[in-house]
Amino acid sequence: MDEMVLLGDEALALGAIDAGMSSAYGYPGTPSSEIMEYILEYSSSSKDLFATWSSNEKTAYEEALGASFVGKRVLVTMKHVGLNVAADSFMNSALCDINGGLVIAVADDPGMHSSQGEQDSRYYSAFARIMCFEPRNQQECYEMTREAFDISEKFHIPVMIRLVTRLAHSRAVVVPSEKREANELHKSDNTAGWRLLPALARKNWAKLLEDQTDFEKYTNESEYNPLSINTDFTDFGVITTGLGRNYYDEAKIELPSLPSHLHISAYPAPKDKIQKLAASVKKIVVIEEGCTFIEDYLRGYLEQSIEISGKRNGAISLTGELNPDNIRGALGLPKREGLKTEMALPGRPPQLCKGCPHADTYAAINSAREEFDNSIVTSDIGCYSLGALPPHKAIETIICMGASIGTAKGAAEAGFKPVVAVIGDSTFLHSGISPLVDAVSCNTPMTVIILDNGTVAMTGGQETILPSSRLKSLIEGIGIEPDHIKTIVPLKKNHTENVDVIKTEMEYDGISVVISLRECLETARKRKKAGGNK
Amino acid sequence: MKYDIILAGVGGQGVLSVAACIATSAMLQGLNVRQSEVHGMAQRGGAVMSHLRISDKEIPGDLVGRGNADMILSMEPLESLRYLDYLNPEGKIVTSSETVINIPDYPDESEIIENVKATGVSVIVDAKAIARESGNMKAANIVIVGAASSYLPVEQKYIEQAIKQMFSAKGEDVVEQNLKAFISGRA
Ligand code: SF4
What we know:
The complex is a heterodimer of chains A (534) and B (187).
Chain A: E1 4-7, H1 8-18, E2 23-26, H2 33-43, E3 50-53, H3 57-69, E4 74-79, H4 80-93, E5 102-108, H5 122-128, E6 131-133, H6 138-155, E7 159-164, H7 165-168, E8 170-174, H8 198-221, E9 227-228, E10 237-241, H9 244-251, E11 261-264, E12 266-267, H10 271-280, E13 283-287, H11 293-301, E14 307-309, H12 357-369, E15 376-379, E16 397-398, H13 403-413, E17 419-424, H14 425-431, H15 433-442, E18 446-452, H16 471-477, E19 485-488, H17 495-507, E20 511-517, H18 521-529
Helix pairs in contact in A: 1-2, 1-6, 3-4, 12-17, 13-15
Chain B: E1 2-10, H1 15-28, E2 32-36, E3 47-55, E4 69-74, H2 77-82, E5 87-96, H3 109-118, E6 122-125, H4 127-133, H5 140-149, H6 156-167, H7 172-186
Parallel strand pairs in B: 1-4, 4-5, 5-6
Antiparallel strand pairs in B: 1-3, 2-3
Helix pairs in contact in B: 1-5, 1-6, 4-5, 4-7, 5-7, 6-7
């Protein structure tokens, strides 16, 4: 087959397509979005593959689970924090008797390039007691995804592929193999394996625990966990995971002697191989991308008293992503330096595009707030999070998808006034509706401002799950007083008028919603280029 | 042979397209390439950098080590200084002289240029002016590729081939303008 140059995300997508996947679901989130983008592009010209974005990661996961129940292979994609949203479905699906291969691709973001946290999804795979693959290059993204589908069908469990930003967003050559056929529709006879009533769930749980032995047998034998022992050098051995292996491979040529080495990319951790390595060396250096997953695991059960060096003892930083330099200390290699400049360089943080509608909404919110002695503005995840930075400095909280509305409600009910929640349209549809229903039930005195730019802007302009035209009827439908649903158009020329609307609603003693409606410039530009006129 | 490049610029300047152009040409010549990109929040007008690694051998990692870059290729002079500690002493800085001033504390332009020159390894190009002469204001990035090209381990014909591939969908004229921009940048 022909070589292709692909992002890690795209290689994973192609691996799933070639594995005979029939459906794919996901919610956009950097650095995972390009997986679905690739599949959507492919599915637009293929009738055998159904792919779509979902409202959020939880709905995506459940949709995927349904496809698996009826025998089809299915992929579900999200970023690491998205798995928190899908966690309920994910954790419980591990107890289900998986029928068609169910693979969950989760992209972690060590270094927080585009995220609010550095959580390591391998913990989730261990928490759910399922299997997980951690590729270290594009070719492995492709191959491990194919393998993950096989494993899922073999052991009847969901299987995770853990990516990290550097792999998701780096490009290299991939050699694909033969595409295989999709599964036929086939509802399993064992529907008891899908009903987690306590009596049945207990059985499923016992079975899952029993199956761990098989999982470990697989990972102990897998060539994805290669072990090499060098009996002539016992000072230390090395365990790498993920991209840590790449940096180690580059650094090891500087070592006086090649240490024994175990690379782990299939989990649960291969106990036997770890034991073998531990028996051959005095110390184990652990180079892993993310948290101290393997490191803590070693400390947990190794019988030998062996020194373990990694992130816990500070040999490698506990925060941030690995790179070719920050692993050197752990291997006893000297620091490297490059050129220097005398000049003090100012930072250049990201900022809203010139003319972005959010900037005008923030200007109006800031002016409206001047009318009050004290006010609080909670906010959410998206391009508009940049409104926390100068020159806007308009929002005061950024936690997780949808949190703006819930936190605003809590603050208002604690007695604070006025309270404003600022949330994007896609974030609102993702997880802002439920807390707004809560606020309606209590007629909480607060104002929700929905920044409706008609797109999921931050992640590259994906379509929102509902068009702007339906937002208002949705909000009316859950019971907000029609008099307190206002629409403004965030433009400089409307500033005074917009300030007035926001101020009036901030004064109102009940729940109100202001929809600030203007299309994202990037989306408008792309739409014009494509010749559309929505 | 290995050649490591740090590409620098401001989100929206087309750092990724420059990286793609060089990467494509290196592959046309039969070399191995790894290219690490920045997507998402950082793209919005902030400082962006991309690692591009070229070698005739296998390349394990996506990232260039400190003191190991053979070139810093920058679309903006201030940004060319930001990643200096990646550059090895024999490396080169190739940068556009055109500033992007979107922060309040942007330093004095002449101070930046002085500091770039003080490295003793810089090539400063007035990419915008050269692009204008080539008949396409948007070709400034290709001018930069031209300026870098005499140091790259890639033959001119492959870079020209990559440029043709990149712009062929936009018509003959655009291809010609970009080839001209490339040649003028190289001069
Ligand atoms: S991409 Fe759209 S929403 Fe994001 S900053 Fe630019 S104009 Fe604003």
